[in-house]
Structures are given as structure tokens and as C-alpha cells.
Amino acid sequence: MSGTEKAQHAVVTGGAGDIGTAVCRRLLADGYRVTVLDVASAGERLRESLGTAAWRYRDVDVSDARAVSEVFTELVDVDVLVCAAGIVRSAPFLEVSARDWQAQLNVNLTGCFLPAQAAARQMASRGGRIVMISSWVGEQPWPDISAYSVSKAGVLMLVRAMAAELAPLGIRVNALSPGIVAAGMARRQLETEPEYAARAATAVPLGRLQTAEEVADGVAFLCSDAARYMTGTALVMDGGCSLRVVNGG
């Protein structure tokens, strides 16, 4: 990049979480300007993690259509969007409450749709890249997270639908499907849910859990020119988890 060329602008939803922060750190290292969207009011913690590089923070609920519209009205030069916001509320299927079901759809699926639509409207005149974090459980059932799995399966179809419509506009849309990450939501489950931890211990053919930095590597690839001929696909980085059928434990 020349001294007069402006760095490309990447927006990362859920950027204050463990995976989101790793993604931000990697994109900053790759030369992007980064805007973090999150509800955690975690600007100070992010400053400790990301330093004084070219990033800024906005407190935004990505499931709130008005809030998302307002923030993207301010962010007028988005080149890359990474949708990494997500929640999980574990429960056996017969015990999933309507409230928890809806909350996971709101954040995990609608929370991808709203920012992606807003970003794509900006990108329509010049192209861009959108990457959504799905999960290996979007295609492979896993006990006690039916609502989460359904929301991530929805993300995969959203990616395909958007990619088909937006390809003529030069907008690439892809998903990254991580495995069991030793960070963020999965780490909390590992620490608080013994049954989950026991299943996870034997679920990964490669024999170890994934790092947040490895997820960020996948995101960086999908954002890069190396993936310029990829759209409408899911890059599965799960250590082989999806090779195994999991039924009850």
C-alpha cells in the first residue's frame, strides 16, 4: 500500500469476544482499519488487547434493525464485514424455552442478516467481502444445543442465498465453520458443563481443541485475494469433528 492509499475498512461484529478479538487482531496485522461492533461496552479491554492500532468501537446490538441501520449510515466505506457475534444457551431439546430459542435466532442469525444487508448495500457499487462465522454444528447435530445448531444452519443458507444474488455486484459472501474452540462460548461450556467437556474430549480427530487465532486465520484467508474465486461456500475448520456422528454422548 502506498503512502497515499487508504487502508481497507473491515467491520467485525462481536469483536469484543475471544474469537472476535482474535479476528480483529489478525485483520489489523494484515493492514485493515477495523471497526468493532459489540454490546459489551468493552472498549477499555479491547485497548489492552488491540493496542493503539487503527481501530474504533461502537456499542451496537446487531439484532436491532434500527441500531444497525444507524451505525452503518456512519460507516460509509466498508470493504469487509465479519459477522462473529453469537450466543449459546445449552439445554436438552425438551427443555429449550421459547425465550432462549428466539434469543439465539435473534443474535446468531438475524444478527448476521441485518449487518450483512446494510454492508452489502454499501458494497453494491464497488464490491466487497462478507464472512459469517457459522459452526460445524450447523451441519452436524450435537447434544443440548439444538437452537444454536439451527441458527448456525440458517447462517449457512443465508450465505448461499446472499452469494447467489450478490455475485454480479462483485460481493463475495462465505462462511467459516469452526470446530470446538478453546475460547469464548465453548470455553465457558468446557468450564461449566461436565458432560459437554467429556464429549469434547473425544470429539476431535486431530486430538486437540481449536484456538481463536486459528479461526482468525480462516477469516483472514476468506477476506484475502487468495479466496477471490470463492463465494457461497463454507470453509470447515473443525479438526475433523464433522467426520464423527455424535448421538447423546
Map the helices and strands.
Blueprint: E1 9-13, H1 18-29, E2 33-38, H2 43-50, E3 55-59, H3 65-74, E4 80-83, H4 98-123, E5 128-133, H5 146-166, E6 171-178, H6 184-192, H7 194-201, H8 212-223, E7 234-237
Parallel strand pairs: 1-2, 1-4, 2-3, 4-5, 5-6, 6-7
Question: Could you please describe the fold and organization of this structure?
Answer:
By secondary structure, the chain is α/β, with parallel strands linked by helices. It has one domain (9-236): NAD(P)-binding Rossmann-like Domain (Rossmann fold). It has eight helices and seven strands; from the N terminus they run βαβαβαβαβαβαααβ. It has helices at residues 18-29, 43-50, 65-74, 98-123, 146-166, 184-192, 194-201, 212-223; strands at residues 9-13, 33-38, 55-59, 80-83, 128-133, 171-178, 234-237. It has a seven-stranded parallel sheet, with helices on both faces. Helix 5 (146-166) links the parallel strand 5 and strand 6. Helix 1 (18-29) packs across helix 8, helix 4 packs parallel to helix 5 and helix 6 crosses helix 7 (194-201). The N and C termini lie far apart (51 Å). The mean pLDDT is 92.
Rg over alpha carbons: 17 Å
The residue fraction in helices comes out at 40-55%
CATH top level label:
Alpha Beta
Order of helices and strands: EHEHEHEHEHEHHHE
Largest β sheet strand count, sense and barrel closure: 7 strands, parallel
Number of strands: 7
The assigned CATH architecture is 3-Layer(aba) Sandwich
Report the β-strand fraction as a percent range: 15-25%
Stretches with pLDDT under 50, minimum 5 residues: none
Domains (count): 1
Shape descriptor reads globular
Helix segment count?
8
Structural class: alpha/beta
Distance from N terminus to C terminus (CA atoms, Å) equals 51 Å
Instruction: State the strand order across the main sheet.
Output: 3-2-1-4-5-6-7
State the CATH superfamily name: NAD(P)-binding Rossmann-like Domain
Stated plainly, the CATH topology is called: Rossmann fold
Instruction: Kindly report the average pLDDT value.
Output: 92
